[in-house]
Amino acid sequence: MPVRTVLSIVTDSLKYLVDLPISAFEQLSETFIGYETLKVENDELRQKQLINKTQLLKFDALEKENIRLRALLENSFKLGEQVLIAELLSINLAPYEHIMVVNKGTRFGVHQQQPVLDENGVVGQVFRALPFTSEIMLITDPNHAIPVQVNRNGLLTIAVGSGTANQLNLPYLPNNADIQAGDLLITSGLGGTFPAGYPVAIVDDFPQTSNKSITHITATPKAHLDRNRELLIVWTNNTPIPLTTPTIKTPVPHE
User: How does DSSP assign 109-171, residue by residue?
Assistant: First the structure.
């Protein structure tokens, strides 16, 4: 083998060994830069995904709110009575009282004992009306009682608040009363507060003794008392809702 060839091989090998760390460093640097770029892009995509998910959640909530409002408005037409939509501000479900506060008061013509509904049934009645807010006593409040009748056969009774969320008591039924689990209870119209025909509750399953006498009977309200955001305050007569205080004109004396 010629000497020149041998020297060329040796020289090329030395150059390769000398350039190897530099090439490796450059490749490592490119790999590291590429990794950092991918990491930044990945973080940006993750943030955009989170923002998009949050926006979708809000859109979903708005869609459900629109569905609720549509149901309320549809029910208001079905009722054939004057109604006002009020928004829930707070709720108290303590054992001794079940009270909601809404954002409509006497400035909108709201007054005590007005029926309050949601898209499913009776919620309660106005307990206290203030200028800008009103307190609603729920039908589950232990101090509340509502005259009802069994929709199947017209049997009249009274549903009393149990102090427990989503439960009413029916304590005034005779032992031979024709009532069954699953019966729909509606307002009877007696007492003057609630017009007849509003859905109130569904009778729960209950045990019967051997002689078919009735024991303790409860019912589950049709209204979603623990999930409402908007409510219907109902006027049961044809009196318009006074949105502003009427101006009293002072008569001018004739000369």
Answer: T--TT-EEE-SSSEEEEEEEE-SS-EEEEETTSTT-EEEEEETTT--EEEEEE-SSTT-EE-T
User: pLDDT exceeding 70 applies to what percent of the chain?
Assistant: 64
In degrees and rounded to multiples of 5, residue 32 shows phi and psi of -65, -45
pLDDT at 127 over 90: yes
CA distance linking residue 201 with residue 219, whole number of Å: 6
Return d(Cα 38, Cα 52) in angstroms, integer: 21
For residue 104 the two structure tokens come to: 């409509």
For residue 71, count CB atoms less than 10 angstroms from its CB and return exposed for 0-12, middle for 13-18, buried for 19 or more: middle
Output b/e per residue, 108-130; b: 16+ Cβ within 10 A. Answer: bbbeeebbbbbbbbbbbbbbebe
Non-local CB neighbours of 200 within 8 Å, separated by 6+ positions? 121, 122, 139, 146, 148, 159, 168, 185, 186, 187, 219, 221, 222
The CATH code belonging to domain 80-237 is: 2.40.10.340
DSSP 64: H
Residue 250, classed as helix, strand or coil, is coil
CA angle 80, 86, 89 (to 5 degrees): 155
pTM value > 0.70: no
Rg (CA), the chain: 36
Q: Is the pLDDT of residue 222 over 50?
A: yes
Q: Are 230 and 103 in contact (CB under 8 A)?
A: no
Q: Rounded CA gap, 42 and 22, in Å?
A: 30
Mean pLDDT of the chain: 78
113/187 Cα distance (integer angstroms) = 15
